[in-house]
Every structure is written in structure tokens, then in C-alpha cells.
Amino acid sequence: MTTVRLPLFPLNSVLYPGLVLPLNIFEERYRAMMRELLKTPEDEPRRFAVVAIRDGHEVAPSAPGMPDPTALPERGPTAGFGDDPAKAFHTVGCIADAATIRERDNGTFEVLATGTSRVRLLSLDTTGPFLVADLEELPEAPGDEAGALAEGVLRAFRQYQKRLAGARERSLSTGADLPDEPAVVSYLVAAAMMLDTPAKQRLLQAPDTASRLRDELKLLRAESAIIRSLPSLPASELTRGPTSLN
């Protein structure tokens, strides 16, 4: 078992390997994290781990009205995550490599990171200015018939795109060809589909690529059928992820 110890960044979204993650950092705990990462030489990866929040708040209350006008301010690395932070997070996450960390004049940060590999959360260290986690690296096994499944998922995904574009009464164009490597296909489609966080989390923690692709094929067919029945269904950009409030 290969383990790593990295800063932990909980989010209200799921990060997949190969996907880009923009972050706007303003909370002090995450500003401290970025200052620490900037100590890493530029020719070395500046890595942290991202996990999806199961029960808690991405942004901790810091003053009345942020975000709850009745909330009392919270401080420290576990603010917003309850008495047992380990239970507030999903246990499978993704390592992020910060290609860009830019500090603004006001001390906040603009960060652009990319997911690299899956990890399982083993334990938390809450004694410092930000959360640090011991993590087990999870290999990506192909599973049975991953190549054929990837082809089926790509066909279903293109149909999903067309139906979604029709629901928005416009044509949807993609500037680049979709990949054909099964694992890459599985993660790109998982990120692009309009699913809630629990569903996206289930896809992240699938035991192998083939299992993830099978689940995506079922979801794509079901979602396409729903869109066909509800042509006015609103949608967001397929390949644009939300920028974290942090």
C-alpha cells in the first residue's frame, strides 16, 4: 500500500483525474495552505488532495451574513465540518497538482490545479493551520471490456450532448475531439454529466474503469430519456466546472 501525506482541500464538488480545477482562495486556512505550497520548488509538483464534502460547509461562517446571517464565526482548519471532520468527507478523493498559484495584492490566491490520481482518506491531522491527510493511492484497473464500453459511452455521450443542446434551443459545439482511452473517457464523461455530488462521487470510487463506464452508460441513457421528455430542461455548460467559492 502506497501512502502519501498531503494538505486536504474539501469541496462541494468532485475532482477527477485529468480535470482542471480553478480555485479562488480567500479563507485563511486555505491561504495558509497555498503559502506552504509555494515553498515547494517550481520544478516539483505542488500537490494537495481534494475530497467532496458529505456533510458540512465549503465556506465556514466568518461573520454575520457569510454565508448565514445568524451563524457565529468559526475559526481553524475544521470550521464548518462538525465535531468529527473525518465523517464530514467522502473517503475517496483526488490528488491535485497546482500548476498556477498566484497571490493577489489583498492576500487572496488564484489557483489553477489539475487532478492526477485517486486516493483514499485514511486519517486527518487537524493540529495545524489547515487540514493534512494521510492518503492511500488507488490504482486505476481497466476491468473487463473497458475498450468496447468506452466506445459505447462515447456514442451515448454524443447523443446526450445533442439532446441537451436541443433542450437549450441552440447547437452545442465541441472544439476538440473526444479521447478514446477508456480511463480518460470515463473521467471526462463523469465530470461533464449533469449529476449531483453523490452520483459523481460513486463514479469516482468505482472499482475499475469498466465498472465506471457501465454505470455511465446507464446514466447517459436515463438522462437522455429525461431530456427528451422535458425539452425545456435547463442546463449548464457540459465541460465547465464550477469555480469554488474559496
Automatic annotation (TrEMBL):
Stored InterPro entries: Lon_prtase_N (IPR003111), Lon_prtase_N_sf (IPR046336), PUA-like_sf (IPR015947)
Domain Lon N-terminal: 6-224
Taxonomic superkingdom: Bacteria
Gene3D superfamilies hit by this protein: 1.20.58.1480, LON domain-like (2.30.130.40)
Record Pfam families: LON_substr_bdg (PF02190)
Protein name: LON peptidase substrate-binding domain-containing protein
